[in-house]
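FAQ: What does a multi-protein file look like?

Like this. Sequence, then tokens, then the next protein.
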Amino acid sequence: MTWTGLYWRSTNPTGRSFFFDALDACSEHGVNAKVHRDHEDSVLVSEMSVEMIVNVDIEPWDMQDYMMKRAFDIVFAGVGLLGLSPVIVGIAVALKLDDGGSVLYSQERTAVFGETFPVYKFRSMVENAEEKIGAKISEEDSGGVDPRVTSVGRILRQAHFDEIPQLWSVLQGDMSVVGPRPERPALDLDIQTGVAAWQKRWFVKPGLTGPAQVSGVTGTDPMEKLRYNIE
């Protein structure tokens, strides 16, 4: 997708401010801003009229690459859901027998360009675990013990079986198989205050796994996680 349409009139001080603000925003979010080739020698020159001067490529995907990746996601998710159907039924039964609570739970997660989408998981914590304390990173991410995690949930987390329902999100197109793990919006905002480049992750569709996950980097180390995500 190419966004073509930042306009600026050099004789307008407000326009000048908007132009620099736009360039600053592009830089902050990791977007390459390019001067239009017809005006590369006259940017900010007073006699320049209203012209297109910035062409921002916010999704630098070749269409063939995009189609191949999407096809892979669909095949992977479809085969995964079908092949794991006996496991899915077994997990649902185990969760019901454990405490009689719900089998699935959903959370809003940050998607491409900061939008949100619902992500589904098998419930691994007690019901309404974050109702009183709000969103927080599980102590298990740093090697501790999280008292909110149920006995069945602990097994699911260790085997990563709690993530299986996210194959449905991949099938729908909200997620990809490979990409940065989607964070909860509240945690995203918290991390952004200390990691200025964190939003660069938003230019790639979130995924089930990626370099950060296979390298054992968790949410307790956002700078290191971001380095892998950007890579």
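And here is the next protein:
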Amino acid sequence: MIKALNTASTGMKAQQTNMDTIANNIANVSTFGFKKARAEFEDLLYHTEKEPGAQTGANSVSPTGVQVGLGVKTAAIKSDFAQGSTKITKNPFDIEIQGPGFFPVQVGDGQIAYTRDGAFRKGPGGKIVDKNGHAIQPEIVIPPTAAGVEISPNGQVSIINGVNTVPQNVGQIQLVNFVNPAGLKNIGRNLFVPSPGSGVPQQGAPGQNGLGYVAQGQIETSNVNIVDEMVNMITSQRAYETNSKVIQAADQMLQYMNNLR
């Protein structure tokens, strides 16, 4: 029985996954702190008709074998945590991580999640929160009397109460990093949670233990390169189309076999 039908169908399925990944990258080209992903594939088991190095004579072996591949499957979808471009906003609560690290925030169920999206704001109670109201951890509260907010590169948050007053420290931003950030689990809303593949969170002040510094008044944009994604999209489309033609050709071959007299 011809195996090309099933093999080509696995190729089409793989390219569907590839296109889904590319589509998500393009859709999030304007998402702050978004990290593009890449689909990775691996070949399936082989049908072995003759082992490589099999004995072919009294004193000879086959230099190659006869192994027919049975297709492809998706092995992983890996996030690329390369630094995105910087957008200057001059908003005092926009914070960019320059280098490795994540902001820890507390989500609704009390769990700590991690994000690269530094578009923070002041909540109703004065807490620094993200766009979904998740408070940065440890919590930092800005008093209502504050006339200005200053955030140093090492994460110290200070407020200014008047023109000639000395800045008053009200908190310290902490960053978290992982041994394998690509192993983090995406849960949407620009948030990640740890998994056995990422390792345990390692927390510290910005600039310490390999963590990046923070910059106030600017924000990290998506690291998606729209030109690269367009090229990848065309390549995936052509691969999908070619696999479909393989199925058509294999189907015609089976028709020829059925019509034999």
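Q: Is there any per-entry metadata?
A: Some entries carry free-text notes. For the entry above: Residues 4-81+224-258 form one domain.
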